[in-house]
Amino acid sequence: MESESSEPTRIMVAVNESSVKGYPHPSISSRTAFEWTLAKLVRSNAAGFHLLFLHVQVPDEDAFEDMDSIYASPEDFHNIKERDRIRGLHLLEYFFGRTHQYGISCEAWIRSGDPKEVICNEVKRVRPDLLVVGSRGLGPFQRVFVGTVSEFCVKHAECPVITIKRKPDEIPQDPVDD
Amino acid sequence: MESESSEPTRIMVAVNESSVKGYPHPSISSRTAFEWTLAKLVRSNAAGFHLLFLHVQVPDEDAFEDMDSIYASPEDFHNIKERDRIRGLHLLEYFFGRTHQYGISCEAWIRSGDPKEVICNEVKRVRPDLLVVGSRGLGPFQRVFVGTVSEFCVKHAECPVITIKRKPDEIPQDPVDD
C-alpha cells in the first residue's frame, strides 16, 4: 500500500551525557531510547527512517570555579565554549557510529540551554514526525527534586512523543544517576 | 544489522466508536492514531509488525431505560450484551479491513469496563512493545470534565505509549465530540 519512495519518517532523539561517567559516554536512558528505536521501530527498514539527534548542553555556571575570576578573559570564555562543543561532538559520535552501522541516514546538532525548553523549540523548528526521549523512570518523590524533561515534552512538544524508560537491570544504585 | 526473522514489533492500538456517528464508525482520534501508525511506523515493512486492536466498551447503565425494569428478564440482559458485542465487532471490522489491505498480521478483542483501567490491565497481560492511543487534544478546561484516557495511559501503562492527536482540520465544532 505504501511506496518506499515516500519521505522517510523523521525521528528526533534527544540525547545527553552520562551523569556518572561524563562525556563522551551517553546516559543510560538516552542509549536505551535510541536502541529501542532501532530495534522496535526502524527494524530492517533503514531507508524508511531518518534520525535527528539533538544534544542540549546545560550552561555550566561553575565553569570558572577553578580560575580566578579577575583574570577570566574573553579568551577563557571562548576556550570553555570550545571545550564544551568538542565534548558534545564526542557524545554525538557514539550515536552517529551506531546509526551508520544500521545504514540509516541521520543528522545531529548541539544547542545550549534548558533541555526541556530547547527540545520543544527544536521540535517546533525542525518538525519531526516523532520525538523519542529517554526517562529515568523516577518515582514521584525523586521527580520533585530533579524534574523530568520527558514529562514536559509529552505535554508541550508539538509532535507525538514517546518516552522510553531504562530497563530495570540498568538502573544504577541511585536512580537519579544516569 | 537486524534480521527480519526476529519477532515482529507488537503494537497495541486502543480503538473506540465515534461519539457523534456511533457504531460502527471509529472515532476520529482512534482512526487518526491508527493511520499514523501505518504511515509513520509500519510503512512498507508489513512483516515487521503485528497489530493488537483493543476495543473497550463502557457498560451502558441506561440500557434498560426504554423497558419496564419489572419485566427485564435474564434474556433481556443477554440480548443487550449480544447487541453490544455485535456493535463492537463491526467497529473492529473497520480496522481489520485496513490492516488486511496493508498485509499486516493482527488480532483484536473486546473488553468491558473503564477504558483507561482496562487498557492498562491489558497492557500488563499482553505485554505489547508499544501502545498507541488517540487523543482529542483538549485544552485544560475541557479536560477537567471529560478526563483523558491518553494521559492516564502515558502515566500508568507498563510499556512505551504514544499519543496521537487529531489533525486540526478534523476537530469537530465541539472538540469533546469524536
UniProtKB/TrEMBL annotation, chains A, B:
Q: Where is the UspA domain?
A: 26-165
Q: Which residues form a coiled coil?
A: none
Task: Identify the domain of life.
Answer: Eukaryota
- Give the molecular function GO annotations: AMP binding
Q: What is this protein called?
A: Universal stress protein A-like protein
- According to its UniProt entry, this protein's organism is Apostasia shenzhenica
Phylogenetic placement of the source organism = Eukaryota, Viridiplantae, Streptophyta, Embryophyta, Tracheophyta
